[in-house]
């Protein structure tokens, strides 16, 4: 059980950044954090009308938009099972959006987070990457590095390429969190499964994919977006002794989920790290 009203502590002085804060789980994360007195919350999304609506609701919580500290990075933005395509930079669309985009932003923000951590109790600075139970849909071998700059049209079994590539991108979120934890031991880094949540991610799918998700939750139903934010909020704000860096966390605060060989592979996590480092050097600012 987790109740954001009573379980989130006072967040005075703390600064948060949430990607994909304009709808679904990210929006609810922003709204719940704002109710606990943080110094600032940055949120990122593409939908200006939605962002303006949230800002006007929370005007008093956003006194300025500059900060010398960052206490929590919540990499929440994501897409799922969309039609095959490439990003502008030439990555498979889901891998580019769900993994490369967050890695690029983190490269800019980690120095600020490390500096913030120097003045805070150990483990209080956090990186959260929204993964998904869907990581298990990844292709054989985990991540097909030679395919990451193709449009993912020919690797899909058994549900189809777009689900396989979603799984690959969400496995990348999980593995990247484990490697970030090794690279930056003073920052608590975890990947998160939020539950199966009734958001645009699900409702924007075609009929058969929506039906697949609803059937998979038969008897339980989908979580509301507000409930879908609980695991994120737990990981962002729980006291440091209760959260273990490098873990994959299912609702609420459960880091004991069964992982497969690829999801536990240090070698694959390091290979992803090295691949990402090399790619980020080629990207324009
Ligand atoms: N819903 C679930 O059942 C479920 C289950 C497991 C994991 N997750 C994960 O939870 C996270 C949040 O998903 P959600 O369910 O809340 O979905 P959502 O309602 O569709 O929200 C996704 C957010 O990501 C943003 N976004 C997408 N592509 C972007 C891009 N290229 N650049 C910047 N922002 C972008 C969207 O911005 P716009 O408003 O501009 O579209 C939106 O704010 C995702 O990472 C997803 O994989 C969700």
Automatic annotation (TrEMBL):
Which Gene Ontology MF annotations are present? oxidoreductase activity
What residues form the membrane-spanning segments? Answer: none
Q: Sorted alphabetically, which SUPFAM superfamilies does this protein's record hold?
A: NAD(P)-binding Rossmann-fold domains
Keyword terms of this UniProt record: Oxidoreductase
Q: Which family does it belong to?
A: Belongs to the short-chain dehydrogenases/reductases (SDR) family.
Indicate what this protein is called per its UniProt record: Oxidoreductase
Species source reads: Tothia fuscella
């Amino acid at each position: 059980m987790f109740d954001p009203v009573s379980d989130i502590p006072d967040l005075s002085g703390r600064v948060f950044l949430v990607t994909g804060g304009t709808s679904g789980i990210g929006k609810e994360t922003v709204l719940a954090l704002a109710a606990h007195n943080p110094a600032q919350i940055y949120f990122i999304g593409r939908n200006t009308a939605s962002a303006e609506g949230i800002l006007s609701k929370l005007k008093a919580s956003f006194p300025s938009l500059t900060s010398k500290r960052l206490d929590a990075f919540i990499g929440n933005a994501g897409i799922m099972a969309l039609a095959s395509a490439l990003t502008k930079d030439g990555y498979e669309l889901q891998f580019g959006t769900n993994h490369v985009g967050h890695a690029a932003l983190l490269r800019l923000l980690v120095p600020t987070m490390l500096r913030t951590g120097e003045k805070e109790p150990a483990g209080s600075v956090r990186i959260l990457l929204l993964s998904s139970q869907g990581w298990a849909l990844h292709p054989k071998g985990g991540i097909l590095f030679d395919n990451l700059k193709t449009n993912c049209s020919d690797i899909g079994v058994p549900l189809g390429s777009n689900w396989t590539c979603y799984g690959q991108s969400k496995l990348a979120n999980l593995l990247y969190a484990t490697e970030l934890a090794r690279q930056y031991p003073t920052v608590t880094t975890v990947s998160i499964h939020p539950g199966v949540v009734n958001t645009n991610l699900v409702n924007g799918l075609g009929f058969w994919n929506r039906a697949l998700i609803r059937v998979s939750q038969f008897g339980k139903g989908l979580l509301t977006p507000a409930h879908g934010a609980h695991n994120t909020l737990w990981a962002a704000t729980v006291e440091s002794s209760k959260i273990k860096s490098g873990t994959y966390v299912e609702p609420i605060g459960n880091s004991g989920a069964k992982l497969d060989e690829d999801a536990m592979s240090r070698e694959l996590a390091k290979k992803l790290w090295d691949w990402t480092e090399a790619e980020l050097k080629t990207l324009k600012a």
